[in-house]
Amino acid sequence: MLTCQVCGVVDEYYDENSDVHHNDTPKHQANMILLHYKNNKKYFSKNRDGVIVLGSAEASSNKVPETDHVKIIIYVKPKQIVKFSFKISNDMKNEDLLVVGIHLAHPQPQFVMNDHPFIFGGDPHILSKKSTLNQEVSVEFHAQDIGQYEMPIMLTFYRRSDEKHIILIREMVVIVQEHEVQHTSKKSPYLNEDWQNADHFIQSITHVPYQIKFKIPKLLKVLLPKGLDEKALEGLQMPADVMEKLRLLLISTRAIFDEGATKNNYMIYFHHLLWWEEIISKINLRKYNMFGVKIENRPEGFFLEVPGLAEKRPSLLRGDRVYIRPQDNQTIVFESIIKDINDTHVQLYKMDQAFFNNYYSCDSLYDIRFLMSRVPLERMHEAVSTVFKSKQESRIFPQPVAKKVYLKPVTEFYNPLIERNQEQRSAVEHIVSGTSGKAPYIVFGPPGTGKTMTIVEAIVQLVAKNSKNRVMVCTDSNMAADHIAMMLLQYNKKLNMPNFLLRGNSQSREWTVMPSALAPVSNGTSFETFYSLKNTHVSMYRIFVTTLLHAAKYGSQRSQSEYKLQMTHLFIDEAAQASEPATLVPVTGLLSPKGSLILAGDPQQLGPVCISAEAKSRGLGTSLLERLKNTYENLYEDPDYITMLVQNFRSDPDILAIPNEFFYDNSLKPLAPLDPLSRVSVLGLPGGERALVFHAVNSREQRMGNAPSYFNEKELDMLKRYIKALIEKHNVASKDIGVIAPYIRQVYKMKVWLANEKYTDIEVGTVESFQGKEKRVILVSTVRANCRLLDYDAKYGLGFLVDDKRYNVTLTRAKAKLIIIGNPACLTRDRKWRRYMEFARELNCYYGAETQQLERTAELLHEVTKKRFDKCRLSDYIIPKSTNTPKKQSKSKKK
């Protein structure tokens, strides 16, 4: 697809099946004019050349007195009528003006102009010197519902003495809201300033120097932030010999990535990806150096407020180091360690006693620098470097088994639901029989198909079948590890095995969210009660559950030299969320070379989290599961190597329809029982009696200062309306409602309102936080919005809302009701969101059509930029050759 600077992403739908080059299409030409309009708009906004235009607005609940501001902004409630009035005067002492015409900039139907005589193309009206127009010029606004609506009005005058057209523009802005919005601003502590080293560095009381492994080559630190394109080295000021080395490094590094993950290139390829990720992560973390902040002393310890923690901006981990520098003494820096993290604060400890004795007070200000721990990256580097040495090549470059392994039917299932589900049963039998040999067996589990339930049955079958089987279960997160451990524990009531399961935790995990039922099988329940596990202890258990990166502790050379721990089976749940190097950590350290590897996940949902966009796109953002499925297509079509689960027990057929169409070749079978809520109109409006709803809100996205995250107050208003209706009219329990917003700022604002309303059980989060979860009702605020029809089309962008995997996760969390609130003018630019809106219309579940912005067709843009701009003579000033200064009109130009 083409991306145009003024049109944005261009596909066949956007170009309206044009047969000509995009630059020659009516839409592109119209957008070029709108770009020039935007660049010149300021010139037309001021009273000048003796013309004075004052605007006012009035509604039953609010009033804006006469003003010469370009924007006349008024706040009203739904269904209120607003009247804008314009007072137009000629302030010149010596010359009359001609009123050529006055009209609205576009035909948005909520704004209606009064029947005045100043029509373009008609006879001009004289506006005498030092006089004001007697005729009324006014605009009435009507809107039924929440939203933000904007309309420019264009006024053109003619001065005969120099044959000059004088054009003035005013903008009417109506913000329709149910509740008054209180905006609070807080100064950001992130000043994006460099950290200056101090004369004295005081280490933490447990500072342990360690040998850095897999150090980033020095010149890569220079090259990789610049990228690998032909112009990457332009502008670098370095000695000639260094520049030559960089040039050669650019060529060799590009060759590494061009070759990709081959047997000969595998290790160096992934080492470079991990280095790239580390370099960008460190650069990114520097942006979060804090200046002039306080450290709070609570009974339980010292706490530092860190804005943006919940959205991982900055991305911090327990155990990371933090430097503290008193602002009143810039010569000394103290090292501290992060003990705990929540949504807003980190707890610091291990500072030297001198900090408390001489430099701490509750009113003192400090500068803060965060340092990234290299431990996770080093564990991944180690796994990559030992994958061949540990005889695990077959896991990353699989081959068909030399001698076919025949399927052995399972005669007794511990979960009767598995026995009745053909695909789940097949997956369990293939895993237990070991039909894939040393090649990873893939359980492809789309949303709601019981993927984790399937591998739990397979694990239980394996440990019940053979007392020598030792099964390790790894996940990318502690939450997922806790979840599968809880599911497994239920089966020991029937099996009654001693030493059935052990849950291995890192001391730095988030202990407060660990289920209490895991306490008897866990190495601790808190930071203080944690105890370290030895391999000898782990070997006594039939099933060992931990995270991918924590597995390195047991697979390390030191631990293995004390006791060689080898697993017969390794299950990785949510494998599509883990990077390939992370997946290899337990494989290279703990899986027997003859053992079985089972990868369970869905490559159509969110993949590994990467800080570096380049590293992500070049391979670090692709899981081992996804790479194998895409690269070894012939192998991973054979049921001996893969099973795709297809029976969906989560979502109403309406909700499943679009993800099924886009991502699963319509192979999923909706089998969830019908929930009466799916056939109810939540707001009591006509229609809406299906499981899927779209509610259009004409609004505009907002940002706080330079913050990267967007929010949308009008969509928040609509969310509140739906939540109140669900709870108060339909008796939906708060815990059964989830709210998804792609931007963390919208999440924060929603959380504040929910807390004030005492709806504490409603879960709110970004798309990432909802992966793997389900709710009876999901509400989605898409946030991105634009209500300025005179913006060019590239200003109607969607950012990462166009991402296929985010879209899939967003739509597949709901069981009974999926309600999406958004701005159609923006969403229509993406085929997936366009399909959702079309489907909502088909089901008679589309609301807000009467208030949304007109569709930005070629016909509409031509109407605005050609007919209306031409009529008011604006085109004469903003033709493409113009710069930011409006073009002067020639003397020969006739009115």
Automatic annotation (TrEMBL):
Q: What is its EC number?
A: 3.6.4.13
Entry's Gene Ontology cellular component terms? cytoplasm
GO biological processes: regulatory ncRNA-mediated gene silencing
Tell me any Pfam family this protein matches: AAA_12
Q: Taking every annotated instance into account, which residue ranges of this chain make up the domain DNA2/NAM7 helicase-like C-terminal? A: 621-824
Q: Which reaction does it catalyse?
A: ATP + H2O = ADP + phosphate + H(+)
GO terms for MF = 5'-3' RNA helicase activity; ATP binding; hydrolase activity; RNA binding
Q: Which residues form the DNA2/NAM7 helicase helicase domain?
A: 421-507, 535-612
Q: Which domain of life is it from?
A: Eukaryota
Q: Which InterPro entries match?
A: DNA2/NAM7-like_C (IPR041679), DNA2/NAM7_AAA_11 (IPR041677), MOV-10-like_beta-barrel (IPR049080), MOV-10/SDE3_DEXXQ/H-box (IPR026122), P-loop_NTPase (IPR027417), SF1_C_Upf1 (IPR047187)
Task: Provide the primary localization.
Answer: cytoplasm
Entry keywords, A to Z? ATP-binding, Cytoplasm, Helicase, Hydrolase, Nucleotide-binding, RNA-mediated gene silencing
The listed locations are: Cytoplasm
Family the UniProt entry places it in: Belongs to the DNA2/NAM7 helicase family. SDE3 subfamily.
Q: Which PANTHER family match?
A: BRCA2-INTERACTING PROTEIN-LIKE-RELATED (PTHR45418:SF5), CANCER/TESTIS ANTIGEN 55 (PTHR45418)
Q: What is this protein called?
A: RNA helicase
- Give the gene symbol: LOC112058380
